[in-house]
Amino acid sequence: MRFLYLILFIGVLSSCSRGVELRPISLAPLFNDSNSKIWIISEVNSGNKNFAPRINVEKDVVIFYQNGKCVFQPMNTIGDIDGKRGEYSLYPDENLISLFFTQEKWEFNIKVQSENKIILSPTSKSDIKYQLVLIPFPEI
């Protein structure tokens, strides 16, 4: 009897998913919260070495805006000087993000660990060769 229920249950589950086309999830809200979002670069890795400062206020941040603009700058200079301004594009089908600055293109494979941690690994086309680990700017 249990076997019959199991067969029926599997049949119902498989019939619910037939013919359904799945669309890729948009990564934009993760990066910009549908407005703007500040991410701290908590780790700057090359091999097994982390080159990021230990103290958060000395780390760099990336600000992603909904309109495709971005700013890269040291956290302790926010409000004092302009950071490196650029634009970014997300390619969710390839799990890629590209950041375009005046003379540079940073291209990364995206690995989402959670909504609070994103790992960006450089592609061979990237001008930056470090892996970046992003965490959201904490609430004050």
What does this structure look like?
With 140 residues, this protein is of the alpha+beta class. The protein has one domain (24-136): Lipocalin, CATH 2.40.128. Helices cover 15% and strands 43% of the residues. It is built from two helices and nine strands; from the N terminus they run ααβββββββββ. It has an eight-stranded antiparallel beta barrel. Strand 5 and strand 6 form a beta hairpin. 14% of the residues are buried. The model has no long low-confidence stretch (mean pLDDT 88).
Question: Secondary-structure map with pairings?
Answer:
Layout: H1 2-17, H2 28-32, E1 36-46, E2 49-50, E3 60-65, E4 69-74, E5 84-91, E6 96-100, E7 105-114, E8 117-122, E9 131-136
Antiparallel strand pairs: 1-2, 1-3, 1-9, 3-4, 4-5, 5-6, 6-7, 7-8, 8-9
Distance between the amino and carboxyl termini: 59 Å
Topology, number of strands: 9
Strand neighbour order, sheet with most strands: 1-3-4-5-6-7-8-9
Query: What is the CATH topology?
Result: Lipocalin
Q: How does the helix and strand content classify structurally?
A: alpha+beta
Q: What amount of the residues lies in strands?
A: 35-45%
If you compute it from the alpha carbons, what radius of gyration comes out, rounded to the nearest whole angstrom? Answer: 20 Å
> From N to C, what is the helix and strand string?
HHEEEEEEEEE
Q: Mean pLDDT across all residues, rounded?
A: 88
State the domain count. 1
Task: Describe the global form.
Answer: globular
Q: What composes the largest sheet?
A: 8 strands, antiparallel, barrel
> What helical percentage do the residues reach?
10-25%
- The CATH class name reads Mainly Beta
Pick out the low-confidence regions: none
Q: Count every helix, treating DSSP H or I runs of 4 or more residues as helices.
A: 2
CATH architecture: Beta Barrel
